[in-house]
Amino acid sequence: MNDMLTVDNIHTFIGQFHILEGVTVQVPHNTITVMLGRNGAGKTTTLRSIMGLNPIKQGEIIFKDQSIGRMRPYRIADLGIGYVPEHRAIFRDLTVEENLKIAERKRGDFANRAPFVFDLFPDLKRLYHLGGGQLSGGQQQMLTIARALIPDNTLLLIDEPSEGLAPIIIERIIEAIEQLSKHETTVLLVEQNFRMASLLAEYFVIVEEGCSVASGKMADLVNDKEMIHRYLGAA
Amino acid sequence: MWDDIVEVIIGNLLYIAEEYTDPLPLLVMYYGLTTVIGGLIISRRFVTLRRDPMAGSFIGFGAALLGFGIPGIYAVHQLTPEKALGLVDEASTEDVQFRFDTNVLWGMGAFGFLWILLTILAANTEPSRFLVVVSGGVYRGMLIFLVAAGLSIIFGLMDVLNFAQGSLFMVGAYVAWEVYGELGDWRETSLGLAAAFLIALIAATVVGTILGLIMEVLFIRPTYSRPFFQVVLTFGLALILREYAISRYGPAALFNVDLRFPDGSSTILTGLFPGTSIQNYWIFMSVIGFIMIFGVQYLLQNTRIGIIIRAGVQDSDMVEALGINVRLIFTLVFALGAAIAALGGAVASGFLAPNPDIGDQFLLQAIAVVIVGGLGSYSGTAVSSIVLGITGAIASHFALVEYSSDALGSTSILIILLIVLYIKPTGLFGRAH
Description:
The complex is a heterodimer. Chain A is 37% helix and 28% strand. By secondary structure, chain A is α/β, with parallel strands linked by helices. A six-stranded mixed beta sheet of chain A has the order 6-7-8-3-9-10, with helices on both faces. The two termini of chain A are 34 Å apart. By secondary structure, chain B is mainly α. Chain B folds into two domains: 1-124, no CATH class; 133-426, ABC transporter involved in vitamin B12 uptake, BtuC, CATH 1.10.3470.
């Protein structure tokens, strides 16, 4: 088994609504895999299901040869999965420092990882004592990623990091994610920005109306104009 | 009616202006103004960076009071330059627009409103009576706070409106009464009496904690996805606890915990300060209340569990996704809220006779205080408890003088609730989501 994470044909309900109707994703070790698809296709719900925040009804999720489909979210996180939610969901009433320290899973995580994190996002060091709500959108996005890097995570689930950000900030985020994968972190990325996705990812999965409909190497997708047009609209 | 109210206010202000020879109203007015202005100036430093309106409000308040107004404010201002606080380095000032948190304006507005009332009271009463009314208001605010603190944190974190919070207050009062009664022999000596009372307080807090744990695990936990069930459930639990109290102690009020020696003479607890013993006990209750306000504030601001609670108020899913067992935190917070309420009841039992309705009479006011302070804002709850407690006491005082009834006391709190909801529906320190 070469895959770090295997999501096998999962079905998820939110309330009475059948949101995921069979999503299969494979994330190989030390790669960046991107999940593509239109708004409302079920990409965010897939990430939330992996995290256990929207528990699955059917199917199976395997992380490092261990079934995590029925675990509570905090146990899943404990195995080494970091979640970077969409909409820059930092804790607005906490300072940057507290936002990072709350992510510690064992004592000393923050001290160990702080040099790496501040090397990746030098801005955060400068903004250390400010409230999360006072940061700009780009700074908040950096903080959500930094927060997921404090504990010893081997897999990151990153949801739409480029959403609503200026191009220059997007470049910075791209650089940071590239840096991460050089440091043996595996990434499952949800991204609407096709250029960003094609720059970063090695593998792709396309989700359409709650089902995964295609997957493969990103290099092949970039040349397959017809598939891009069919599932992603004009790109 | 409005004409009458306006006339009364204007009449009072004119009266104060004419009676400038009487120092008390002037002193109160001076402190009021300096508190509001100084609070604004000082809190800016705390609020811009720490987003902590309460610290700013209280430090402004304390500085004005202890430092005799303007000089005190000036001193604190000089002692806390932004860089000395270690909160800003030069680079980050470029990134942040320093601005007032409007919530502090509302907090200061509440204090300003309070000081207007105090000035009117000072102009219309003897200084000794003034102190009685104000200290009565502070203790009343503290008892409301002890019920409201749990209500506020529990609602903020878990979206549970716990109607049983008042019943936990009642349980605390009865437990303290019972334990203190059991230790009757100890009351011969000053030390023994203090120890007996302390043990009664601790026992009540422990029973409250255990009851809170049982309630959360057995009843609240299974119903998080059904908020309406929870409201009905906590209301039902409140009724059950009330009926149990009636079956065990009878429907009538007991005698309050008597902190005098068996022969009726004063003890160290009743005689700490000169004057009547009742007022000393008010001060004791107020001190306990302030200790709890700042203790819980310290817990929220400076400990890991406090950070988790504040984060969870905003987004408990995300806290869980960081690897933190949020349900365990919910249980602990529920128990903490229950413990504070039970401690409140135990403290109150030294002054108020335990009865089946002792908690419910504070519950309604506590709910009002939580809403006025802003749902989910602990600081707002703390500030509005004190402001509304004193307001209630002043309203009671005037109602007693004018109509020989103190019913206006609790009503005034609800009137303020209506006004605040009309002007700022999110409450004083609340944020729109």
